[in-house]
């Protein structure tokens, strides 16, 4: 466990908060899909994620306050793609690395993980630096405005 942070499984009760974070303009600008998402569409998506054995969605909390979310999507051959979102109010507090580390810890406890992949928008220098500091390395040429980084698990 990362000191001070606890990851828990997301639930349907988190839908509105997760949607507010997802629809935040800064979050949308770094996402593959930058459209504003409607609540009904989001709830449908969330139910599918929560029911899927190939996805893990965590809410990370500090002192009982939700500060971010980490999602992992299973890829072939024991690889997982990561997506991280910090709550807008949590940005600038130095929490991103700890949120990512806590998510990776939970994933490794629950799944056989060979590697974790991250798609990082080419204009998102902060996210690229986060993943690079966490041990992710360039794994494929950039495509469609996104860099691909990969972290091999021990």
Automatic annotation (TrEMBL):
CDD domains: NAT_SF
Entry keywords, A to Z: Acyltransferase, Transferase
Name of the protein this chain belongs to: L-amino acid N-acyltransferase YncA
GO molecular function, one term: acyltransferase activity, transferring groups other than amino-acyl groups
Domain N-acetyltransferase: 5-154
InterPro entries with a match to the protein in the record: Acyl_CoA_acyltransferase (IPR016181), Bact_Acetyltransf (IPR050832), GNAT_dom (IPR000182)
Entry keyword annotation includes Lyase: no
Top-rank lineage group of the source organism: Bacteria
PROSITE patterns in the cross-refs: GNAT
Naturally occurring in which organism (per UniProt): Amycolatopsis saalfeldensis
Database matches in PANTHER family: AMINOALKYLPHOSPHONATE N-ACETYLTRANSFERASE-RELATED-RELATED
Pfam families assigned: Acetyltransf_3 (PF13302)
